[in-house]
Design brief:
mainly alpha, 2 strands, about 50% helix, about 0% strand, elongated
């Protein structure tokens, strides 16, 4: 059986969504006999995170003792399928890395995240205790820039130290997200750009050198990226037609002239 294609970036694997039934017990059979698995809502979050990230711990922490011999006898590929089915059925995160990321975010910024979820009618504690971790992480990742969560991130000095230790990013300002580019922000953006042009015109009329004022960044859409990619392809195609051997490297620098006197030798005295 060929593997299923990955879902789109903003979509769901509909088969997995259809199989997500966290309020019903997962029924599994192995070698024709029923297997008893623990409901993640009845296990500690550490047991759930560890058990769904390691198949050996899954057997110890999330399988009842009377069913462990059956599960232990499963082939490796069947065991992987069982763990994946368990994750999907109960609405857990897709991977152990997501489990760890969610636990880390809630341990460090949980109060701020809770304040962001309450106005939307979402109870952070209920989602966490029901093990609706996939949904909870998806909601946290979609919080806007003006949320309490992002404010807590910006006030975290330890996080700032880690970010400053990384190599600097490329030049230019980050583009605004389309979901946050409201009509009011779009109007303010146009006002910002016109004000910059006015400052440049007034400075030039007074005989000064107009300052460089970059336009306020707009959201970049898929059409913008495709248009830019096509322009690069067209440019490379034109270069290939004009230069049969492709782009030519810059000529090498001529070697610097070296003095016959060895470095460090004293300057000879004048005759």
């Amino acid at each position: 059986m060929s593997p299923r294609p990955d879902p789109p970036a903003y979509g769901f694997d509909l088969d997995e969504v259809d199989a997500e039934r966290p309020h019903r017990r997962l029924r599994v059979r192995a070698f024709g006999r029923p297997v008893r698995l623990r409901d993640p809502r009845t296990a500690s979050w550490r047991a759930v995170a560890a058990g769904t990230g390691d198949r050996r711990l899954f057997l110890q922490l999330l399988v009842y003792p009377d069913s462990r011999p059956l599960v232990a006898a499963l082939p490796e590929y069947r065991m992987r399928h069982l763990v994946r089915t368990y994750r999907t059925h109960y609405g857990l995160c897709a991977s152990p890395a997501d489990d760890q990321r969610l636990a880390g975010l809630l341990a460090r910024y949980g109060k701020a995240i809770e304040r962001d979820l309450l106005p939307h009618g979402l109870d952070l504690h209920a989602l966490w205790q029901q093990r609706r971790w996939r949904r909870l992480l998806n909601v946290i990742d979609a919080l806007p820039r003006n949320s309490h969560f992002v404010e807590a991130l910006s006030d975290d000095e330890q996080l700032a130290e880690q970010l400053l230790d990384r190599p600097p990013a490329g030049p230019g300002r980050l583009a605004a997200a389309m979901s946050q580019f409201s009509p009011e922000l779009e109007m303010a953006t146009h006002t910002y750009d016109r004000l910059g042009e006015l400052i440049q015109a007034v400075t030039a009329a007074a005989g000064g050198k107009p300052p460089k004022i970059a336009a306020y960044p707009r959201p970049r859409t898929a059409a913008d990226r495709v248009r830019k990619r096509r322009a690069r392809v067209q440019h490379r195609s034109l270069v290939a037609r004009l230069l049969p051997n492709g782009t030519q490297p810059a000529p090498p620098r001529p070697p610097a002239r070296r003095s016959s006197r060895a470095a460090g030798d004293p300057v000879p005295a004048a005759q």
